[in-house]
C-alpha cells in the first residue's frame, strides 16, 4: 500500500479546494436571496450551506466521476443535492430538542444565528431543494437515471437510512447497557453510512455500472462510512473544539454508547485503520483513476475535524 | 349552477370515504413498525398520517384522475405522496417553536404524544418518503412522468412554495401594518395554494395534458386554494375547536393579519363564495366527469372543519 500514499499530499488538498469552490458557487446561485418575506429563510440556508464544511460527500461523488468518466457538472449537481440533505440534517440535529449545539463548522448554528422556527424551515427547504436539483434535466438527460438517483437518495436519507439512524441514536440514550457494538454499528450504518454509501452509488448509477458491478464500491463506501464515524467518536472524545469546529466531549457527557466507550481509544483507532485498509483493498480492480478515492479513505482516518 | 349541485349529496361523502380508506391502507403498509430502535419513529408517523384528516388533497388527485382516465392506483400513490408532504408540514408547524399547537385532527400533536425530537424526525421521514413513493415505478411506468411529478412536488413544497409561505407567515407576525391583502394573498398562494395546485397539476401530468391545456385546471386550483384559506381564517375566527379538531381563535390572539382581519367576516365569506363560483366556471370545458371537482369546490366553501 506504500506506493498508493505517494501522491496524496498533492491530489487531496487540490481536489477538496476545487469541489468546495464549485459547491459554494452552485449554492450561491441556487440560494439567491429574494426581496420578499422569505429573505430570512434564504439567508439561513446560505448561512448553513455556504462556506465551511469539508464537502466530503460531494468530493466522493466527483471522485466516482473520475472512475467512470461522467460529466463533472453532473457530479457537482448530485454532490450539491447530497450536501442539501447533509446540511438540512445538521440544522435539525443541532436544534435544542435534538443535540442542542451552539456551534457548527466554526459558526453559530442556524437556530442561534436566527431562531428555531427559521431553522426548521431552512432544513425543510434544503430537503426539498435536494430533490428539485436531482429532478432538473441539467443533472442528467436520462430520466431513468434521475429516477434511480432520486429513489436511492430518498431511501438513504429517510426512515430506513439517515433519519432512522438518528431515531436509533435518540433511543440509545435511554437503552443503556443493552446497547452493544453490533447495535452502535447498525445505528451508524444508517445515520451516516447510508448517505456516504449513496455518494458512491450515485457515481455508479451515473456511470451506468450494473448493480452486480457495484460490489467493490459498496464495500469501499461501507468501510469508509464506518471508519468516518469511529474517527468522529475519537474526535469527540479527544479533539479540540476549536479545531473540530463544534462542541466536543458531548458523548461522554450524555453517557452515550459510542465506538470509543465500547472499544476504548486504542482499539477504536486500530479498527478505523483496519477499515480504511480494507476500503482501499475494495478498489483493487481500479488503477490510478481510483487514487483520489484511496486518498479520501486515508483522509477519513487522519482528519482532525 | 343549480343543476350542478344536484348530486353533491351523493357523490362527495362516498368519494371522501373511499379515498380516506385507500390512503389509510396505503400508509398502513408503508409505515409498518420495525422491531428495532426506529419503532417510535414509525409509531409517530402512523399517529400523524393514519386516521383523521380530510384527505382533501388525495381526493383532488383522484378527481383529476376521473377527468383523464388514468389508473386509480396511481392516483392513490400520488395522493399519498402529497399527504406525506402535507402531514410532515403539519407536524413541524405544530411544534412549540412554530405554532405551538397541542391538538391536531382531534388528537394530541406529535410532539405532545411523543416528544419534539421525534416530531422533527417523523416530519423529515415523511418528507423523504413522499419522494420515495413518487420515484417508485409502481407510481408510473414512464420515468419522464415520474421526474415531472417529483420536480413539481419539490417546487410546490420547498422555498418557492409551502416552506416559503410558512416563512412569510412568520415574518408577517413582525411586519404589522405593512401587511396588506395583496401580501396575505401571496403568502397563502405559497403556503397552501402551491400544494393544492400540485394536486391538479399531477392529474394533468399523469393524464398527459400538455402545459397549454392546463389553464382551466390551474385556474380551478388557484381559486379553490384561496377559498380554502379564507374559510380556514373564518373557521379560526368563528369556529368551534371541537368541530375543527384544533385550537381556534389563534390568529386574533397573535394579532396576525388574515383575510378576516383585513376584510371582515362578511366580505371574506362573500369573497370565498365568489372564488368557488369562479373555480367551477374554470371547469366549463368538462362535462359530468368533472362533477366531483365541482362538488369539492362547494365543499371547500361549506366545510366546518
Automatic annotation (TrEMBL), chains A, B:
Per the record, the domain of life is Bacteria
Which InterPro entries does this one have? Answer: Isoprenoid_synthase_dom_sf, Polyprenyl_synt, Polyprenyl_synt_CS, Prenyl_diphosphate_synthase
Reported EC number(s) for this entry are: 2.5.1.1, 2.5.1.10
Cofactor entry: Mg(2+)
Q: Name one GO biological process term.
A: terpenoid biosynthetic process
Signal peptide residues on this chain, from the entry's feature table: none
Molecular function GO terms recorded: (2E,6E)-farnesyl diphosphate synthase activity; dimethylallyltranstransferase activity; metal ion binding
Q: Which PROSITE patterns match?
A: POLYPRENYL_SYNTHASE_1 (PS00723), POLYPRENYL_SYNTHASE_2 (PS00444)
State the UniProt keywords alphabetically: Isoprene biosynthesis, Magnesium, Metal-binding, Transferase
GO annotation, cellular component aspect: cytoplasm
**Which family does this protein fall into?**
Belongs to the FPP/GGPP synthase family.
Q: What is this protein called?
A: Farnesyl diphosphate synthase
Q: Tell me which species this is from.
A: Sphingomonas prati
Amino acid at each position: 500500500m506504500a506506493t498508493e500514499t505517494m501522491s496524496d499530499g498533492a491530489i487531496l488538498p487540490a481536489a477538496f479546494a476545487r469541489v468546495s469552490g464549485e459547491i459554494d458557487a452552485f449554492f450561491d446561485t441556487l440560494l439567491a436571496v429574494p426581496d420578499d418575506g422569505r429573505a430570512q429563510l434564504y439567508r439561513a440556508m446560505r448561512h448553513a450551506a455556504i462556506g465551511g464544511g469539508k464537502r466530503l460527500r460531494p468530493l466522493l461523488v466527483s471522485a466516482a466521476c473520475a472512475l467512470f468518466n461522467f460529466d463533472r457538472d453532473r457530479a457537482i449537481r448530485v454532490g450539491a443535492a447530497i450536501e442539501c440533505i447533509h446540511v438540512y440534517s445538521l440544522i435539525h440535529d443541532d436544534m435544542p430538542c435534538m443535540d442542542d449545539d451552539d456551534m457548527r463548522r466554526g459558526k453559530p448554528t442556524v437556530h442561534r444565528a436566527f431562531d428555531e422556527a427559521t431553522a426548521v424551515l431552512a432544513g425543510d427547504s434544503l430537503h426539498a431543494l435536494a430533490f428539485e436539483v436531482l429532478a432538473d434535466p441539467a443533472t442528467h438527460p436520462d430520466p431513468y437515471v434521475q429516477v434511480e438517483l432520486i429513489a436511492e437518495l430518498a431511501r438513504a436519507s429517510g426512515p430506513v437510512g439517515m433519519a432512522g439512524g438518528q431515531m436509533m441514536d435518540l433511543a440509545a440514550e435511554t437503552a443503556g447497557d443493552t446497547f452493544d457494538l453490533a447495535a452502535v454499528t447498525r445505528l451508524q450504518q444508517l445515520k451516516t453510512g447510508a448517505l456516504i454509501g449513496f455518494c458512491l452509488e450515485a457515481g455508479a448509477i451515473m456511470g451506468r455500472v450494473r448493480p452486480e458491478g457495484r460490489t467493490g464500491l459498496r464495500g469501499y463506501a461501507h468501510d469508509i462510512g464506518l471508519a468516518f464515524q469511529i474517527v468522529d467518536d475519537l474526535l469527540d472524545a479527544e479533539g479540540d473544539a476549536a479545531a473540530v469546529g463544534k462542541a466536543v466531549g458531548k458523548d461522554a457527557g450524555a453517557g452515550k454508547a459510542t465506538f470509543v466507550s465500547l472499544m476504548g481509544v486504542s482499539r477504536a483507532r486500530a479498527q478505523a485503520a483496519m477499515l480504511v485498509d480494507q476500503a482501499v483493498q475494495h478498489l483493487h480492480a481500479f488503477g490510478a483513476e481510483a487514487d483520489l478515492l484511496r486518498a479520501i479513505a486515508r483522509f477519513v482516518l487522519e482528519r482532525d475535524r
